[in-house]
Each structure stands twice: as C-alpha cells, then as structure tokens.
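**User:** Here is a favour to ask of a fellow structure person. Please take any protein you like and set down a full record of it. No explanation is needed for now; the record alone will do.

**Assistant:**
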Amino acid sequence: MSTYPLPDISLDGRVVIVTGGDTGLGRSMALALANCGASLVIASVNEEGCERTAAEIRDTHGDKRALGVVTDITQLGQCRRLVARTLENYDRLDVLFNNARRLMRGPGLPPEGNSLPFYQTDPEIYGQTIAVNVTGTFYMARAAVEHFRESRSGKIVNISTSRRNFSGPRNSPYGVTKAAVESQTLIWARDLDGTDVSVNSLLPGGASDTDPNRPKKEGQVLLPVDIMDPLAVWLASDQSDGANGCRFVGKLWNPDLPPSEAANGAREEPIFADQVEPQLS
C-alpha cells in the first residue's frame, strides 16, 4: 500500500511529524505520506533508525523532504524542541502522528512477546510503558497544539489498538495505556472543537507483521505492515477535515472505494461512544 500515492489525494506542501517513525508501522506510514507529497520529520530515540528512514525519503524525493530528529517523548522539553526544529526547517507543521509506543517485549518478559499477568509485571516496566504511551502522547500533542492553535489548523492522529486489548488477560499495562489514549483522543477532540484542530485515533485492526524476526504463534496470521497507510494519508489530507473524535481501523479500508467513502467504511464506534459524539462531516 505504501508504494504508490492514493488516487485523488495530494499532500504537497504538508509537513508531518511521525513519532516512532524509524521502524514498523511508523516507518511505513512515513513512506506513504512522503509518496503522496508530504515532507516528513521522523522522531525516535533511535538515532540510527530515524536517520535511516529520513535518508530513505530524501533519496527518493529530494534532500529537503525529510528530517530525522532524535527525541525522547517522555521529556516535554524534547517534544517542544522537536516541534521547534520542524518549524525552523519547514516553517510549518500540519499533522502529528503519535505513533511512538512501548510494547510489552524485552528483558524479563516471555520470549514469545506476551505480557505477564499484572501481578507479575515489573513495576519499573509498568511505569515506563505509561511514560511513553500515555504521558509521551500527551507531551507531543501539547507541544504541537501550541503551534496548531496559533496557526488555527492542525491534525493529531493517535495510534491505538484493538478493543480486545483493553480487557483481555495479560494486556496490562499495554492495554491500559491504549485505553487511556482513546480517552485522550475523545477529550482532546472536545477541548479543540471549533478550533480547526482535529484529533482522531487510528489502529491496524489486529497484530501486524512489524518485525520479521519476531516469533509468531502457531497459526497466527499477521496484517501487513502497511495496513494503516491509506488511512494515514487520508487523515493527513484535506479530505478528513470533518473528522474529529473518530476511531479508524486500517484493515477495514476498502481500496475499491473513493478515499472518503473508504474512510467512512473504516470508521469504528469510539471506545467511549456514550461520552462523546464523534464528528464526520
């Protein structure tokens, strides 16, 4: 999906920040956005990774089309510096993809990548996951909105997860943090209502093949890493201007429909639908 631009959508002149854009879903979305004309700022704690993605975009689209900025989103000062670097380099910022996340994989966790029951979870890992997935998402949005409100336009896309992860066993703290992100999305959408700044959430719709070296469960079918690319492009475009407080699912995109019809078909009821009425005009 990320190889070709979407028909009828141009992002020429747009500037987009993608956190966690060095690998996986973030990298794929960044490449797709660049293919449709956007300039990209790739942010990650991994200096080599974010520069590699930025260099890939520059090699394809030109030296001015991508910038890599090492950023720890758990530090508000670094988030503000990222936005400042973006404005210094491009003199504008149009879209923020809050994609950076901490998954429950790594030292002290089962090799197959599953989380542990909450009562066995290392408190330090629990805190780190909240710091990245919840607080870091807030810090990035806070830094971007300072500019968006001044420019009276902007889009925030928070990357979320499937419903089953909010209540299934062994999904703490990851599911907890993504439930918080869904709440943030709806609250922020209401806070910004009437400002021409929108906040929506986007998710793959299942486990995605983001790491070819990751062990797979027997019989597991993974979604392609570019599963969210068409919706990412649509959400970054003018065609999504009426969407605010909505939740979109990558695997529900129908490529045979015009983009806005496909996006409407990929919209899922928000997790806290009784609290906020999403807008999609």
Summary: Residues 15-280 form a domain with the Rossmann fold fold (CATH 3.40.50.720). The first strand starts at residue 15 and ends at 19. The chain has a mean pLDDT of 89. The beta strands are 15-19, 39-44, 66-70, 95-98, 154-159, 197-203, 243-244, 247-249, 267-268, 279-280.
